[in-house]
Design brief:
single chain, alpha/beta, Rossmann fold, 10 helices
Length: 267
Amino acid sequence: MGRDGEHRRLMEAAFGDTATTYDAEIAFFTTIAARTAAGAAARHGSGRIRTAVDVGAGTGALAAALREALRPERVIAVDISLGMLRAAGRHDDRVLPVLGDAADLPLPDRCAEVAGSATSVRFFDQPRRAAAELGRVLRPGGTVVLSELGGVDRKWLFLADLVRRAARRAPAGPPRGSLPRPVPLTELLADAGFVDVETAEETLVFRFTDEHQWWRWIRGQSAGAAIRQLPAAAAEAVERAALATAAGFADLELHQVLRIATARTGP
């Protein structure tokens, strides 16, 4: 299996099985998508938008948010996971789902006025090529928006440590591609030739009713894929330890930093 095929397999394993539960417990990604789309709307202004493109669309949260914030004539949602795209099509029949890789978008040159991605860049196999592709599909003077997750409360960092330790002890070693690192958005856009790069940062607050809701939410995210790749006994041990730790917290608030970068294509 080539590099592209392997990346597609990893992404389908991480996201395809969680498509129906991805944002079920709290409005995490819908809130992030709304803030990302608001950044795009503020930057683009009131000009006519025939096409907006959401790359790494997942279940289509950003695509739906772009439609609400910008009122384009059409929104295209591109993702490498067929499972996610099926969910996107179910959520909003006014969004056109397209199967494709961010590094090789199956779209023509200069076909959109706005394009972006919400918290997906870290999962791209080739983020620099993906940024260049965003520039290719945008018309001159078009707007790009990218958002990325920043830090969270230190109390929640224990889970990544639990999963890493369990993965290191597993016979097959740690699962590949399950714990991606954030990408510097400003540098990525500038290197791709975008101009007038602007950034903003805010902290979003989410609340869980109890540790069990938090765990169901974790299981429905990409982190859940890393846990499911562990041997059954190891996964059960991680769950027990995680629930016990979360149950001891004074509150179950999650403070999530969100970074948003916008820019324009040249004339």
